[in-house]
Give the backbone structure.
Amino acid sequence: MSRHDTAVAQRSYHHGDLRAELLRRAETLLRRGGIDGLSLRQLARDTGVSHAAPSRHFRDKQALLDALAVAGFERLGASFEIIAASGTLLERVTAVARAYMRFAIDNPELLAVMFARKSRQTPAIEAAVGKALATPFAMITDGQEFGEVVAGDPRRICLSAMAALQGLATFVGSGFVTAEDADGLFEETVTHMLDGLRPRR
């Protein structure tokens, strides 16, 4: 870390923003080395604070992972709320699906923390998950009320759709599917998903 970055981190600490700065740096470490490469000691070094400073906000690595999960769900939920504010059901579903797949492609390590049981089901995480998924759940419920979506548990319907999108994101992230093919496969995945959600006549 440069002297400038260290000075910025120290100023942030004095202004009470150290926790937010630690989370930002933790995401960088997570992308660089995965969960195994994330430690409070390394985080302190990268942020330019004493080794004891991170423990004032996260008592251990697990607490840091929990906080990263909450931050991830909050960011995902905020993007859902913005893009699903208007449009037809088809337009809203497509926009939310695209936002989710982009998030999954751009943040595979963070997604593992959020979904792969790398974090505990704390009240804060449960609240963040509920808020993040409220928008897609509401879209499914609205579609059901207007006869555009099959009857069923909105949560199960939503999670099955997310699983399909996450699978596609994994294919793209691993290189199994090329970036050139990703858009076409995304459109096909959404089309198949919506076809499957339409009520049977």
In short: The CA atoms of residues 84 and 92 lie 5 Å apart. The chain has two domains: 3-59, 62-197. The two ends are 63 Å apart (CA to CA). The domain at 3-59 is CATH 1.10.10 (Arc Repressor Mutant, subunit A).
